[in-house]
Design brief:
The structure holds two protein chains of two kinds.
Chain A lengths: L3 E3 L4 E4 L4 E7 L6 E7 L6 E6 L3 E5 L2 E6 L4 E6 L8 E8 L6 E3 L3 E6 L1
Parallel strand pairs in A: 2-11
Antiparallel strand pairs in A: 1-3, 3-8, 4-5, 4-9, 6-7, 7-8, 9-10, 9-11
Chain B lengths: L3 E4 L2 E4 L5 E7 L6 E7 L3 E10 L2 E4 L6 E7 L2 E6 L8 E11 L3 E6 L3 E5 L1
Parallel strand pairs in B: 2-11
Antiparallel strand pairs in B: 1-3, 3-8, 4-5, 4-9, 5-6, 7-8, 9-10, 9-11
Classes of the chains: A mainly beta, B mainly beta.
């Protein structure tokens, strides 16, 4: 069974700080990695995707991938209260682009 | 958002009754998925489709069936609803985003309660 593990949290950071979210996965054949943000009562929305080892930056978000360690992380710089949400790590390894999701990390940014 | 709608948004049904949830997309995407989301379990794949009449099982398919007779519609049926199927159900499509990267777009979800 393919597994994706995340720190369950909750994680609290002060406004302006860096929030660090971590994820590990079990399937070494995984090729694509995603971070989704989900506000309470809403559907998940894609915020970052990463496909190769290293860092990928998009605005205040940085995704990091280490395939040898089977580890993916998301850094949120200058955290804002509007970043308070649950962050879902997802890994793709199927021919039909099926995603396996972690259970999510709840982030609270304190004003 | 990517023209994906789910219906109904909320439903309460009795144990043992059949229930069908509908996912409709307007952009001719090939891949469609049904997930359920429960506290502590994240999103779990129920069934997926890779074309008209082409479907396959996901991680938690027992008690569910699907049909896709048209590209735009992907139906999820609970054959005989049980309380363990009380959940939030999300439909998703896999779409091209940001040049060559693919990502999921989710529908708004259906909150199903089985009493």
């Amino acid at each position: 069974q393919k597994e994706v593990e995340q720190n369950s949290g909750p994680l609290s950071v002060p406004e302006g700080a860096i929030a660090s979210l971590n994820c590990t996965y079990s399937d070494r054949g995984s090729q694509s990695f995603f971070w989704y943000r989900q506000y309470s009562g809403k559907s998940p929305e894609l915020i970052m995707s990463i496909y190769s080892n290293g860092d990928k930056e998009d605005g205040r978000f940085t995704a990091q991938l280490n395939k040898a360690s089977q580890y993916v992380s998301l850094l949120i710089r200058d955290s804002q209260p509007s970043d308070s949400a649950t962050y879902l790590c997802a890994v793709s390894s199927g021919s039909a682009r099926q995603l396996t999701f972690g259970s999510g990390t709840q982030l609270t940014v304190l004003p | 958002d990517a023209g994906i709608t789910q219906s109904p948004r909320h439903k309460v049904t009795e144990t043992g009754t059949p229930v069908t949830l509908r996912c409709h997309q307007t952009e001719n995407h090939r891949y469609m998925y049904w997930y359920r989301q429960d506290p502590g379990h994240g999103l779990r794949l129920i069934h997926y489709s890779y074309g008209v009449k082409d479907t396959d099982k996901g991680e938690v398919s027992d008690g569910y069936s699907v049909s896709r007779s048209k590209t735009e519609d992907f139906l999820l049926t609970l054959e005989s609803a049980t309380s363990s199927q009380t959940s939030v159900y999300f439909c998703a499509i896999s779409a091209l985003m940001r040049a060559t990267n693919y990502g999921y777009t989710f529908g708004s979800g259906t909150r199903l309660t089985v009493v």
